[in-house]
Amino acid sequence: MRKTLARTAVYVAITLLALAWLLPVVTTLFISLKTPQDYVSSKFYALPKAFGFLVNLKAAAAQYKVQDHVLSSLLYSTVGAVVAILCASMAGYSIVRLKPRFNFALFLIIYSGTIFPFQMYLIPIYKLYNSLGLYDTRIGMMLVYSAICIPFALFVFRGFYTTIPREIEEAAKLDGCGPIQTLFRIFVPNSKAPIAVVALFQATWIWNDLLFGMVLTRRESIRPVMVAVASMMGFGGSSIPLLMTVVFMVSIPTIALFVFLRRYFISGMVMASADQ
Amino acid sequence: MRASPRTKKHHQALSYLLILPAFALVVGLLLLPMAQNLYYSFFQWDGISKEIFVGLKNYLAFFADPNFARSFLNTLVWVVATLAFPVLGGLIIANFLRGLRLGNLFKSIFFIPLTISFVATGAIWSNMFSRDLGVLNGLIALFIPKFKLSWLTSVPLNTVAMLFAWVWQQLGTSMVLFLAGLSTIPRDPVEASILDGASKWQIFRHVTFPMLQPVTTVVITMAMVNSFKTFDIIYVMTRGGPYRSSETLAITMFRETFTMFNMGYGAAISVLLSILVILVSVFYIKNMWKKDLLYY
User: Fold this and answer.
1) Which of A81, B94, B99, B266 has the most CB within a 10 Å radius?
2) Residue A6 sits at the chain B interface (C-beta within 8 Å)
3) Which domains does chain B have, with CATH numbers?
4) Which residue is closest to B264 within chain A, CA to CA?
């Protein structure tokens, strides 16, 4: 009797909490369905009078050019993650298998780039970019995002490459594969797990970035998507349905990544935590 | 078959060449700038005119600056609240979810916010807390007529409101990690304690919790580091306002640097923030290297 009572209490408490957790999601979707006029003139629980989602989407595209920011951010996320994966797999392979002198020191130097908060290099990068003409350019954004992703990526790839059996490499050597061929024909094609972890965490991070986008860009055509979302905020009233529609749209890519790569999430989290 | 000295030399060069791109990007864009940032922190500099060496003045200014003191205190509030809610809450929820039949459904629900950016989270919750059309005021007004609270402009309510958004976003992380940790705990010691007549709390306190310790360390460190660095949510929800009342160190650094152009002072704040973050990380990273916590 007491046991069932306790069990019911746990169920009730967790269900209430889960409902509270769902409320903002439901609210966001609900508001994105209302037209701006409908939203400001109706109660928060009133059903939408008409299907406003597409109207909002069109308005957001026309007023805020959200689609341009989305394209920019897609470019930054893809290039940043790909460059980080390439650099990290090459460096990781060399450090683990070719073992040049100072390999561990080189690893530590690169890895140390991730321990510090972004604020620690924000001002000098801003200054550097201004003097090199990289400020407010796509290439500048891709470079800084790649650089920030590399330490974590290297940590992941280095760890993974130590687990690839040496015999495979020896066999490749007998077949006449040099280091480069071994890396690109054997190591990289077998790196599904580290590639997925880096892609999931780093592409998501770049997509979600606000700070570097704000500091290093100015033109709308260069600014990443989260900066655009942030600048849409604070106008209240009739701008809210547009904002909520945009919030929903810009969350789809990261939600999709999580859904597709969810089995890499836990291992990635554990590694990401080592990477603070 | 032995490699000739020439191919060996060739391999040596190649091995450095493979590290070069990663090394160049990280050193050029992160490490050298960090050193430069430390250097700037000893100067008074507005970003345009020539910088003036002031020694430790920027650091000493911390003690006299009420904005800094408030920001530092707010940062500590964020850290403590993060340990209390997403971390401890995640531990409790993970433990309760273990036995529930609908555990996976609840798990997915608490996980959703994790896939949403901080900016989007801030936008969603700004709207929830909005004074006139916000859902929270609307819900409360169903019970208390004419209820209207300006959550985001009254102090200290705005920090509480932002912490709500933060906890909503962060709870899933710790919950998922604790669940993963719980699933690796062997059944035998738990069953042995049940046979010995231990209560649920005793089992948790003396068996489960000690065995969960590596995960707990991960979660605590990560949560502390992340809360020290909080920026996006505050920036989009209050900009640190009203009147700089809800700033944390990351926001104060940004404001001093890019709106007030006290770049030397901003650099000094970022150095302090780095020291705090590294102090938290160091003891953890040491553990990490000792234990083999990495798996796929």
Assistant:
1) B266
2) no
3) 63-290 (1.10.3720.10)
4) A123
Q: How many CB pairs under 8 A join A and B?
A: 278
Q: Is A75 on the interface with B (CB under 8 A)?
A: no
Confidence label for B287 from pLDDT (cuts 50, 70 and 90) = low
Query: Which ipTM score applies to this complex?
Result: 0.92
pLDDT under 50: residue ranges of chain A: 276
CA dist., res. B96 & res. B175, Å (int): 11
Which CATH number characterizes residue A209's domain? 1.10.3720.10
Number of domains into which chain A is organized: 2
pLDDT tier, B227 (very low <50, low <70, confident <90, very high otherwise): very high
- A233 and B236: CB-CB below 8 Å? yes
Residue A152 is part of which domain span? 64-274
Task: With beta carbons under 8 A apart, name residues in chain B contacting A230.
Answer: 119, 122-123, 235-236
Instruction: Indicate if A133 and A231 belong to the same structural domain.
Output: yes
Residues of A in contact with B47 (CB under 8 A): 127
pLDDT digits (tens, 9 = 90+) for B10-23: 778 899 999 999 99
Q: What is the mean pLDDT of residues B258-265?
A: 94
Our CA-based measurement puts residue A16 at a distance from the nearest CA of chain B, in whole angstroms, of: 11
Closest partner residue to A210 among B232, B269, B277, by Cβ? B232
Q: With contacts defined as CB-CB under 8 Å, which chain B residues touch A234?
A: 126
Q: At residue B5, does pLDDT exceed 90?
A: no
